[in-house]
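Researcher: I've been going back and forth with a colleague about how Glutamate 5-kinase might be arranged in three dimensions. Neither of us has a model we trust, so I'd like an independent prediction. The organism is Methyloceanibacter marginalis, in case that matters for your notes. Sequence below.
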Amino acid sequence: MRSEWTNARRIVVKIGSSLLVDSAAGALRREWLSALCDDIADLRTQGKEVIVVSSGAIALGRNVLKLPKGPLKLEDSQAAAAVGQIDLAHAYEDAFRARGLVAAQVLVTLGDTEERRRYLNARSTITTLLKLGAVPVVNENDTVATNEIRYGDNDRLAARVASMMSADCLVLLSDVEGFFTAPPGSSPEARRLDEVPEITPEIEAMAGDVGSELSRGGMVTKIEAAKIAVQAGTDMVIASGKVMNPLRALATTGVCTWFLARSDPTTARKRWIGGTLEPRGALVVDSGAAAALGSGKSLLPAGVTRIEGHFERGDAVVIRNGEGVEIG
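Model: Here is an independent structure prediction for Glutamate 5-kinase. You can compare it with whatever you and your colleague have in mind.
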């Protein structure tokens, strides 16, 4: 068992429509979902926090509404999502309740991870749910998201959630056993990679646009998700979800592909704050606070001697010592 898995304390698990919904019947694969929830319950007993990012609402809703096969118009997709989301939420609620766990539905749109204050609010909500022992089940709010303001697929949504929540590990359950050098179904020379330490142009070229009618995602979107995840300090793994108890199989068989982050989520988050956000003000601190910050400790209100500028929760600020030197 790899250390990236055993050491992970916060895990995001993404489940695709093709795994959750029977494509022929348009019905939920309840036995498979039950086995997956067994795996999540096991992880919880190990002290790990688990966030689920689930597709399936549109796939379930289109069957109920008897919509035709093939690509759907935006308004039809939104109607299908509105109907399917209810079935999906009830399915997770029932499956987790049977294992003594509470499921919490979280619907997000692109702005919730792109706009700083909404990002903080979403992060705070999911963090609170985890502290209270619930299992957040996240999905894009397809009912209101237009083509211009949507993630477009749940692989990238899962990566954004993993980044936002400083997750240690992102699991993409797929219909293939990992990342291959070529499409495994059509190329006899295809070889699964156990590990991808860096996403190079050669790795990107290997990704084939493989998807199904029920799923908007393919291997290309999984590579895009991997870029988001590893940059945020989150290890990502692609593993088969076609087996029963897929998380248990991931831990025991090791048949998967790992995309490795170069830094931990905390370091990556600090780098993002320091290099991306424009400071909106400054805090001037006394010598004791400056010394505490220099040794990696937190800043306490008593150490602040002056505030400059106007800023709100979530804004970046510069920290200066009494001589005006920037120290953070």
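Researcher: What would you highlight for our discussion?
Model: I'd start with this: The chain has two domains: 3-265, 278-320. After that, consider the following. Residues 74-97 form the longest helix (24 residues).
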